[in-house]
Amino acid sequence: METGMNYQDRGSLVGGSWIEGEGEELISRNPARKGDIVWRGRAVSPGQVESAVAAARRAFPEWSASGLESRIEILSRVEEVVEKRDEDLAKAITEEMGKPIRESRGEARSILGKLKASIEAQRRLPDTALPGAPGRSVWRPHGVMAVIGPSNYPIHLLNTHIAPALLAGNTVVVKPSPITSASGQIYAEIMQEVGLADGVFNLVVGGHEVGQAMVAHHDVHAVAFTGGWGAGRQIMQSCLEQPRKLLALEMGGKNIAVVLEDAHIPQTVHELVLGACLTTGQRCTATSRLIVHRKIADELIDRLSRAFQRIKPGDPFADDTLMGPLATLEARENFLSRIQDYEASGLKALVRSEAMEGGAFVTPSIHLVEDDGEQAQDYLNTEFFAPNLAVQIVDDAESAKAICAQSAFGLSMSVFSENQAVFEEFSREVPCGIFNWNRSTNNASGLLPFGGLGYSGNHRAAGSTSALYCSRPTAVLERDFGNFSPDPVYGPVLAELIE
Ligand code: NAD
User: Fold this and answer.
1) How many C-beta atoms lie closer than 10 Å to residue 356's C-beta?
2) N- or C-end of the chain: fewer Cβ atoms within 10 A?
3) Alpha carbons 44 and 408: distance in angstroms, whole number
């Protein structure tokens, strides 16, 4: 296994300068190496959050007035910088949160694809004035946007909001997950090298208190948040008295794969293993529920169980590793103890998750849900963010559809069947953001809308539709200077009043 790297704390990037954090100590640990420390630094203080927002606010008028083509020209310099730094970034991601290096390399390169897609989307913002409208419709940036990211895609899910936010003319204050601060700092170095004016892009490192201060700040007019429902809920609550603030919440998933009696079994097993186990089940789009038709349930569960039992998590720097560790040792302990509690109260294990030595490694598990009680509903509506599949057996597609429609989450789902018309029925009737036919739930695309409903999101889908929530539609009505032709309704009355 590659020896651990030590990353220097660069601090936070505020108004174009790196500042040393004055808040609590933060530590990143390598989850594949018994939690060895790879980075140690300090979070920003509340006063430093204030400075970052103030810097973004000062930079806003010039950046927003600079015009789209000028912003595209500046941001396009990112390509050259990423070519030099993508491997540094990929290694830091893997060291800090443990995903296989192949996935981290893809994540580092995704900065470029996202910029390209965001430029296209920004240029295609619709003209929303209807024929005959007495004016124009224009899209305006919000001002300062807060971008708060999760641990599983620590760079992609910052960049996915930052690119459209900056293109639209907003300035940003960005906070990475506290377990991936070093990766966040490398990303900020890349953005600094691009040559943005001071304060256009600001990075603050810190935990949830820093996030809370950003979200609650009255000069932050939009929040692009990616993380769990628990944090998303707190964000909504803290903004109740600030109706002006736009919240784009990309939250968790408990994504369902429905397997009907005519499914192609080898294809289905292949996609289910990918869906449940890639990134050690730590994708918002991971498959964590399976609803299978009784006629094929035994065969499917048997094949799937054999595959799950063969998967051994390993060194994320090795080329043949499918599954690395969970992101932290605490995440593993939390997952295993919660599953044990469910098992103690009757949940049936078909394949058990086992902890493995050397880091936050855990094997994937399958559990069978046989009743509809409170405990079962709780298990079915809890996101563990780990490789665990909850199985339910049904007698027909209608019952599967009814179960899907009850889910508290609604991010991504799959239907495995030869019959496309049945798949279409699911996509019409189940409240969910992403539908896959004979594909895993975790195959999403930034060239399409990406977002969910319920505990998964608040109708502000990212992906190809990010440009929509990074701007606000505005009406502009104009009249020639000096022209005040009589008002059609009150003209005669006004004529008597005004000489
Ligand atoms: P998390 O919710 O614990 O933290 C996410 C970020 O929010 C972190 O930066 C954290 O410091 C910050 N935060 C926490 N509480 C906050 C608060 N009250 N106010 C402001 N900021 C706060 O999530 P995580 O463990 O880092 O990531 C995993 C979660 O993210 C999972 O639920 C996963 O499904 C979700 N996720 C969603 C998407 C999506 O696009 N829908 C993508 C990836 C991950």
Assistant:
1) 14
2) C
3) 35
Cβ atoms of 393 and 372 within 8 Å: the answer is no
Active-site amino acid positions = 250, 284
Q: How far is the CA of 471 from the centre of ligand 1 (A)?
A: 23
458 C-beta closer than 6 A to ligand 1: no
Query: If you measure from the C-alpha of residue 150 to the centroid of ligand 1, how many angstroms do you get, rounded to a whole number?
Result: 4
Taking CA atoms only, the protein residue closest to ligand 1 atom 28 is 227
Q: Which residues are within 8 A (CB) of 361 and not within 5 positions of it... i.e. 6 or more apart?
A: 32, 313, 314, 324, 325, 326, 332, 355
Give per-residue pLDDT as tens, 401-429: 999 999 999 999 999 999 999 999 999 99
Q: What is the dihedral of CA 210, 216, 220, 223, to 10 degrees?
A: 80
DSSP secondary structure code for residue 439 in this structure: S
Decide: 269 and 303 in contact? Cβ < 8 Å.
yes
Residue 222 amino acid letter: A
Q: Per-residue pLDDT averaged across 342-346, rounded?
A: 95
Contact call for residues 137 and 474 (beta carbons, < 8 A): yes
Rounded CA separation 180/379 (Å) = 29
- Between helix 229-238 and helix 208-216 the angle, nearest 10°, is 30
Nearest one of 343, 69, 78, 357 to 192, comparing CA atoms: 78
pLDDT (tens digit per residue) in 10-57: 999 999 999 999 999 999 999 999 999 999 999 999 999 999 999 999
pTM, full prediction: 0.97
Confidence of residue 486 (pLDDT cuts 50, 70, 90): confident
Q: Is 211 in the pocket of ligand 1 (CB under 6 A)?
A: yes
CB 368 within 8 A of CB 346: no
Digit-coded pLDDT (tens) for 205-245: 999 999 999 999 999 999 999 999 999 999 999 999 999 99
**What confidence tens digit (pLDDT) does each residue in 422-458 have?**
999 999 999 999 999 999 999 789 999 999 999 999 9
